[in-house]
Amino acid sequence: MASSKVKFMVLAFALGVHANADETSKEEIVNAKLISSSCIKPFYPKDSLLNREQGASLINLHVDLNGDVVEAKVQESSGFVALDEAAIKIFSSCKFSPATKNGEPVVSWKELKYVWKINEKS
Questions:
Q1: CATH number of domain containing 38
Q2: Is residue 82 part of a domain?
Q3: pLDDT classification of 25: cutoffs 50, 70, 90
Q4: What is the pLDDT of residues 69-115, one digit of tens each?
Q5: Mapping DSSP to helix (H, G, I), strand (E, B) and coil, where does residue 52 land?
Q6: Which of 45, 68, 73, 103 is least crowded, fewest Cβ atoms below 10 Å from its Cβ?
Q7: Does residue 7 lie in a domain region?
Q8: Per-residue confidence at 27, pLDDT binned at 50, 70, 90?
């Protein structure tokens, strides 16, 4: 009789593991979302403006459980250090709705691009 009880427990455990594996394959992941009103006003670095530097800075942001940026780094450079550093400063000031996994906040990385373009006045 003990033997059949052990077999039942092993079978129940095996079925439980299988059910959990199916549940994890259906995880719902929602990416972090920028709250644009929380960011500092974008500014063109004075020397970059005088030198007519333009380009796009792709910045990688590490967003914590509270939606705060805890680290920022250049993923792709605009070609100008001052523009990249300004993009990091702008995006680091922003607040995010944190990423979630199955409805629970998780830390994540978010890529944002800032395009630096000097507007020509007619």
A1: 3.30.2420.10
A2: yes
A3: low
A4: 999 999 999 999 999 999 999 999 999 999 999 999 999 999 999 99
A5: coil
A6: 103
A7: no
A8: confident
Does 27 or 59 have the greater pLDDT score? 59
Alpha helical stretches, state H, 1-122: 2-24, 46-50, 81-92
Q: Which domain does 80 fall in, by range? A: 28-116
Tally of structural domains, the chain: 1
8 Å CB contact between 83 and 115: no
57 found inside a domain: yes
The answer to whether the CB of 43 falls within 8 A of the CB of 86 is yes
- State phi, psi for 92 to the nearest 5 degrees: -65, -25
Q: What is the pTM of this model?
A: 0.75
Alpha-carbon distance values, 91 to 11, 31, 105 (Å): 52, 16, 20
Residues 71-80: contacts with CB within 8 Å, 24+ apart? 75/111, 78/53, 78/54, 78/116, 79/53, 79/55, 80/48, 80/53, 80/55, 80/116
